[in-house]
Design a protein that fits this description.
About 50% of the residues lie in helices and about 15% in strands. By secondary structure, the protein is an alpha+beta fold. Strand 4 and strand 5 form a beta hairpin. The longest helix is centred in the C-terminal third of the chain and has 29 residues.
Length: about 350
Amino acid sequence: MSLERFLNKAVSSWMSAEGPEADIVLSSRIRLARNLRNYKFPTLFENEEAREIASRLAEMVHSGYLQAYEGVEYLPIEQLKQLEKKVLVEKHLISPRLAGDSPHGAVILSEKEDLSIMINEEDHIRIQCLFSGLQIKEALDKANVVDDILEEQFDYAFDEKLGYLTSCPTNVGTGLRASVMVHLPALVLTRQMSRIVPAINQLGLVVRGIYGEGTEALGNIFQISNQITLGKSEEDIVDDLVSIVQQIITQERAARKALLKTSNIQLEDRVFRSYGILANSRVIETKEASERLSDVRLGIDLGYIKHLSRNILNELMILTQPGFLQQYEGGPLRPIERDMKRASFIRERLKMEEKDS
């Protein structure tokens, strides 16, 4: 498989870097947690119940209820290879939990991969919509349309006082998790993140790494999401998140301007050193690649580098993860082999960009 063909197949629509505020906001995600009435929740249900729930969702797809979404496909997790599951996790289309030991787990994916419905994860159904840039309200609108379609077919577990009932008490109410993935290199370089994160937490939001809870903020990329789902409407939750993210965008841009004013030559040197390493390395680990890609993306946004597109960070942060590299190679690789392949992949991708400029 050629690299071009692999990229065409591998890149999701949310990686396009074409959405609003795309210089800082990489993606917006809405996730709705739902459970079916008269079934035990996944933390307690038995295999027969899990199988029946999965079968009902599969039948819904095959009957064409989601035909408005191009190329919708039902994928049983147990039929996927380990590397295929790892790739879906790296693309944020399924959770590590679903890729692991969820009994009779499945995922419904749209061709553009902007819609993902996880089945038998922590809840019976988790509807996820991913958009590029700051489009969290648009993602909510799409998720609600899908939710309405499902609710016509299934009787949800719902309480008039509490709202939607979920396996985890923190999701009870709207069942909504709204999150935005942001690239904040200037706030990290100016050491402001240690002050900003506690302030965000006090406002009922949480800051996590690139793959959610318990993960590292690789490449200065952070996920900001709501913690409260009970006692607030979906619209209020999203409005609060957008308001905070807009403030963070303003602070990041201010930090970039300050760096340009006080440390311009040092910043330019950092950007081109990272570019040189990426363009010439023969071996590079995930963490270093992420840091160097973050520097190059900052250099693109600030105008130091003019021949590369913003998509470079969005794509390569995903395509150089261990699962993707091994999927591309068609089988498992030793760590050193992955680091060599990662370096080769980045070099080739940069050359492709240079040819097109």
